[in-house]
């Protein structure tokens, strides 16, 4: 039987058949095959082993399932099946590339999504024999075995490591008599201490087993552990007894603690005793003779721990914390993902009672897709949504920055286990964090300082937090609203014809990352522009109505800017209350009970001065007017996707919008660069907010922000006049 091997496809070798690949922008422009999946086999496994080939053969039926899933839900990306035998079937098919040494270290059974779906949370005590007989290669293999066991533990698990000879030696003495969470930091810390182990003396296994049982029992009583599975991992080169008296005292008849012995070395003299311990305590025995045997043999215990779930047919759905997509290579921008997965069981009558796990099936969900479901326009200028796991780790948060370096493509250490308390640090008592970890629903308020402009500026805000759990997931969702922003909306009625007419102006743009219409349900609609989608999905949807209103209201300003360009005016004065849509002859707003602030006076030199004027509204609508040709702009990245802080994104408003909205409407915010591009030229951004007032004279929303970018030198200056004030600055 031949199959498409992910590493060998399109090469003139066995399992390297012709496999059509085409670039696809939905998959980060990687070359993929949307009709077939491929199979990846770890380098340390034989790719034509009978168990591998048999599994690949029957799992080929997943091709149709994957294709049907993608046709039904085009927002899906990677779908895959990780087999208990070690192979990994991935859709759509792509070509995998080995590292510089010709190795692909990826083993699906080591991934968090596989381990979480296959097993339940567990408390584990690892006993390591450091008696004299473990010297040399055996101790090296033992260290590697323990390290591989740690790889299979996740954030929902707890563990400790005890070395033993005549005495007990906790690998980390400071954590004597307790278990610790198996997060990345703790596991790395214990790995460092493994190198300090040395072999001498006589191994007293009875003392070690007694300590392990007492430790698991005492920790379970505290209620701080997994409160689920418990296991003792025994790494040794032999046992002179079966120690049935100890098991009878601490573990029988319930057998709540499973025993997993790992016999190190080629000798089998003591194998029978260790096998008996495993069988008498619902465990599994393996022998590890070389370093190459370690990984495959360590995996066996996962299949045993999965048996209760298999027998009870518990198809639990699990979600992982955020991580960087491993397929984001070849110079492409890394993508932050979460995985949803569930176990796959054998349903044959003859195997059902044996609890055979076939593997785990899963799919990736980009965090950016989750952000699209959040109505940013409702959260206000400084508002944001965030989500954390049951361990307090951030799934998504505007201040989560997992990447660094040139081009932001290098991963920070432990980027996937950043705690909420590290970004919402003003919550000194962890009130918000603890409530969300405990999956409660409630509110919380505190004063916060938020850095903007890449940390160069700070805003002091008072945030109200609202939080609840997300059913069917380990996540809790929080929303932060800044007081004074986001509570009220200004809504007006315009006809669809009016709105579309002004919305289709070439200088109008909408926030790319905002969801105005859900086009994912129809594959052909996914490539529509925002405005095209709005035309197709016109309905009573709130955001669409508001963006149409904004398009009509701001159209006169666009016309005024255009007239300035055409007339090449030396001096222009713009008052927003001159806009006919807002004002009548008595200088009162056309909408009942509303008034507006006057705007801005700018004096410009005929050669130098204002380069660009632009406006943004709370609905993500932008109007941009150039006073110079594009190539003459001082900052070519400004208002483009390259300027992350200067455009409407999924999780924030532009920097110029946020800063202006914090000031009294009609006054100006000037932004001067910290490092100008040349000695004689600098870019100045002048922004002002226009605030609508209702009949109670209380602010409804900082709806519009108008800003201009000017190039200033000795021959050209930008000035402004405050509304209702003759003073100049």
UniProtKB/TrEMBL annotation:
Name all VWFA domain ranges: 123-305
List all membrane-crossing ranges: none
The GO cellular component terms are: voltage-gated calcium channel complex
**Chief localization class?**
membrane
Any matching Pfam family:
VWA_N
Q: Which GO terms describe its molecular function?
A: metal ion binding; voltage-gated calcium channel activity
Q: How does it sit in the membrane?
A: Single-pass type I membrane protein
Q: Which UniProt keywords apply?
A: Calcium, Calcium channel, Calcium transport, Disulfide bond, Glycoprotein, Ion channel, Ion transport, Membrane, Metal-binding, Signal, Transmembrane, Transmembrane helix, Transport, Voltage-gated channel
Q: Where in the cell is it found?
A: Membrane
Q: Which family does it belong to?
A: Belongs to the calcium channel subunit alpha-2/delta family.
Q: Which PANTHER family match?
A: VOLTAGE-DEPENDENT CALCIUM CHANNEL SUBUNIT ALPHA-2/DELTA-RELATED, VOLTAGE-DEPENDENT CALCIUM CHANNEL SUBUNIT ALPHA-2_DELTA-3
Q: What name appears for this protein in its UniProt entry?
A: VWFA domain-containing protein
Protein species of origin: Gambusia affinis (Western mosquitofish)
């Amino acid at each position: 039987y031949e199959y498409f091997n992910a590493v060998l496809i399109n090469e003139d070798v066995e399992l390297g058949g012709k496999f059509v690949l085409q670039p696809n922008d939905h998959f980060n422009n990687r070359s993929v095959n949307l009709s077939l999946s491929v199979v990846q086999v770890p380098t340390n496994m034989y790719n034509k082993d009978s168990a591998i080939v048999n599994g690949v053969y029957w799992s080929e039926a997943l091709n149709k399932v994957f294709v049907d899933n993608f046709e039904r839900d085009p927002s899906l990306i990677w779908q895959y099946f990780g087999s208990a035998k070690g192979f990994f079937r991935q859709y759509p098919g792509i070509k995998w590339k080995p590292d510089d040494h010709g190795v692909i270290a990826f083993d699906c059974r080591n991934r968090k999504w596989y381990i979480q779906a296959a097993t339940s949370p567990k408390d584990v005590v690892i006993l390591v024999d450091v008696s004299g007989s473990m010297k040399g290669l055996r101790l090296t293999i033992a260290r590697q075995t323990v390290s591989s066991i740690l790889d299979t533990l996740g954030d929902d698990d707890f563990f400790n490591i005890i070395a033993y000879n005549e005495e007990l030696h906790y690998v980390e003495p400071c954590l004597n008599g307790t278990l610790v969470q198996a997060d990345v930091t703790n596991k790395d810390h214990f790995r460092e201490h493994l190198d300090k182990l040395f072999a001498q003396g006589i191994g007293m296994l009875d003392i070690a087993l007694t300590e392990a049982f007492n430790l698991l029992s005492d920790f379970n009583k505290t209620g701080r552990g997994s409160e689920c599975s418990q296991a003792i991992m025994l790494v040794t080169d032999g046992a002179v007894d079966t120690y049935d008296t100890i098991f009878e005292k601490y573990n029988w008849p319930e057998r709540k603690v499973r025993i997993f012995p790992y016999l190190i070395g080629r000798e089998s003299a003591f194998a029978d005793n260790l096998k008996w311990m495993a069988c008498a305590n619902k465990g599994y025995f393996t022998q590890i003779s070389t370093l190459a045997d370690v990984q495959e043999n360590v995996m066996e215990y996962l299949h045993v721990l999965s048996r209760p779930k298999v027998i009870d047919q518990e198809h639990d759905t699990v979600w992982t914390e955020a991580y960087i997509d491993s397929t984001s290579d070849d110079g492409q921008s890394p993508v932050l993902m979460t995985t949803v997965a569930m176990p796959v069981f054998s349903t044959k009558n003859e195997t059902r009672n044996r609890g055979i796990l076939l593997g785990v099936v899963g799919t990736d969900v980009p965090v950016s897709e989750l952000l699209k479901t959040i109505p940013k326009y409702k959260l206000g200028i400084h508002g944001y949504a965030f989500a954390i796991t049951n361990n307090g780790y951030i799934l998504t948060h505007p201040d989560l920055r997992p990447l660094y370096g040139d081009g932001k493509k290098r991963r920070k250490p432990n980027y996937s286990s950043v705690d909420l308390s590290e970004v919402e640090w003003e919550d000194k008592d962890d009130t918000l964090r603890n409530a969300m970890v405990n999956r409660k629903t409630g509110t919380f308020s505190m004063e916060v300082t938020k850095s903007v402009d890449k940390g160069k500026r700070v805003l002091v805000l008072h945030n109200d937090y609202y939080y609840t759990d997300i059913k069917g997931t380990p996540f809790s969702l929080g929303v932060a609203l800044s007081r004074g922003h986001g509570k009220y909306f200004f809504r007006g009625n315009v006809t669809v014809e009016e709105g579309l007419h002004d919305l289709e102006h070439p200088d109008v743009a909408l926030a790319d990352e905002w969801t105005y219409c859900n086009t994912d349900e129809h594959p052909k609609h996914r490539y529509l522009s925002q405005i095209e989608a709005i035309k197709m999905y016109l309905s009573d949807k709130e955001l669409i109505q508001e963006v149409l209103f904004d398009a009509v209201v701001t159209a006169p300003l666009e016309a005024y800017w255009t007239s300035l360009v055409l007339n090449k005016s030396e001096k222009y004065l713009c008052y927003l209350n001159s806009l006919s849509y807002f004002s009548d002859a008595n200088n009162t707003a056309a909408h009942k009970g509303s008034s507006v602030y006057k705007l801005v006076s700018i004096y410009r030199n005929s050669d130098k001065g204002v380069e660009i004027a632009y406006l943004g509204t709370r609905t993500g609508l932008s109007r941009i007017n150039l006073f110079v040709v594009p190539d003459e702009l001082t900052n070519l990245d400004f208002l483009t996707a390259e300027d992350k802080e200067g455009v409407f994104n999924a999780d924030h408003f532009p920097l110029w919008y946020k800063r202006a909205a914090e000031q009294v409407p009609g006054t100006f915010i000037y932004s001067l660069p910290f490092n100008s591009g040349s000695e004689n030229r600098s870019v100045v951004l002048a922004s002002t907010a226009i605030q609508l007032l209702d009949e109670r004279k209380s602010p409804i929303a900082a709806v519009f922000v108008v800003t201009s970018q000017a190039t200033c030198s000795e021959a050209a200056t930008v000035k402004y006049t405050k509304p209702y004030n003759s003073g100049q600055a």
